[in-house]
Design brief:
This protein has helices spanning 11-21, 24-33, 40-47, 51-63, 88-101, 110-130, 135-140, 145-158, 181-187, 200-212, 225-231, 253-263, 282-287, 296-305; strands spanning 38-39, 68-72, 75-79, 171-175, 192-197, 218-222, 238-244, 264-275, 309-317, 323-330. The chain is an alpha/beta fold and 331 residues long.
Length: 331
């Protein structure tokens, strides 16, 4: 019996993949999926085609191994397959994606993409507007700050950001500070801290927290990382940035890595605390989650694609079945 070497791709497999990719629309879809995952209806909206036609194209790409899918509650999202192998097909596929990403797409669908992402952001902002007064209760359904706050402080200590060093530790950014609990920890360790959030209601609560705790070196900004990057083109980069339990609310998580990488100063650090991939779909309705956590390998790939180097990782299981990942990435 002859066993085929898994590192050798067959011509029939390569021909199937090449044929699947050899269509302008499908290449445009693959290029878009380089930005993150999208649902069928979102893709139909972006490319202005019927659902039956888009489903056919996705089936062709899926059968050829060019896309994979993931369930988010009752919805199916399509994405590029996680590709970390060194076999012949994986290497070929990475080169294909690299060529697609560097190519000019004559059909400009950026406005349609922005529209889809804006709809996701509006849904998230709407949830927090409705639940600003019971934010802590919603947060406690999955993981309260008290369950992981000490671990965050320990990570900062291990990086040399110690309490009382705020006079010479540079600038820090927290994306999505919520009611502001971690801002106090940052305020004690950095000369200046920026809290960035899309929710005016939560920013108002964070402002109250900062006032009550005399956090005079904290400034609060309403907006997202794209807007902050635009406004800080000529400013000094942040030495430290953190997103605590935020990515699963973000319309395009991969984009956060790209934009934070641009916001960091050389040698800066990005700390991501978020849920590992799970199947508790009730979190979408009860907690406003857009994504059911993330595979650690996805975060690693997004960081690598944005030019960040992976640092240490920690994982902590919770009694309710969720697992938190603490991930460090360096510019």
């Amino acid at each position: 019996m002859i066993t085929q070497n898994p590192s050798v791709v067959s011509l029939s497999q390569l021909a199937l993949a090449a044929k699947a990719a050899g269509d302008p629309l499908r290449m445009s879809v693959l290029k878009l999926l380089g930005q993150g995952a999208f649902g069928v209806l979102e893709l139909c909206q972006i490319f202005d085609i019927k659902q039956s036609s888009m489903s056919h194209h996705l089936k062709v790409l899926s059968q050829a191994g060019l896309v994979s899918n993931q369930r988010e509650g009752n919805s199916i999202f399509y994405r590029r397959p996680l590709n970390t192998g060194n076999d012949t097909f994986s290497v070929w596929l990475r080169e294909l994606f690299r060529a697609i990403d560097s190519s000019l797409d004559e059909s400009d669908n950026s406005a349609a993409v922005d529209g889809v992402l804006a709809e996701r952001a509006e849904a998230c902002a709407g949830f927090f507007a409705r639940h600003a007064d019971d934010f802590r209760e919603q947060q406690d359904l999955i993981a309260s700050y008290e369950q992981y706050g000490d671990a965050l402080a320990t990570i900062l200590d291990s990086l040399g950001y110690l309490p009382g060093s705020n006079g010479n530790s540079g600038y820090a950014l927290e994306i999505g500070p919520g009611e502001g609990a971690f801002l106090q920890t940052l305020s004690e360790r950095f000369a200046a801290v920026t809290g960035l959030d899309i929710s005016p209601d939560l920013l108002a609560k964070a402002e109250t927290f900062c006032h009550e705790n005399s956090l005079n070196n904290v400034s609060l900004v309403q907006g997202d990382t794209r807007a902050l990057l635009e406004s800080r083109k000529n400013d000094e980069g942040f030495g430290f940035a953190v997103a605590n339990m935020v990515l699963h609310h973000v319309p395009s998580p991969k984009t956060i890595f790209t934009e934070v990488a641009a916001l960091l100063a050389p040698g800066g650090t990005f700390l991501v605390t978020d849920l590992c991939r799970h199947d508790q779909s009730w979190a979408k309705d009860s907690c406003g989650d857009l994504w059911l956590g993330f595979d650690p390998a996805d975060l690693s790939q997004w960081a690598e694609d944005s030019g960040l180097k992976e640092g240490q990782s920690q994982y902590s299981g919770l009694r309710n079945g969720f697992q938190i990942q603490f991930r460090l990435f360096h510019a």
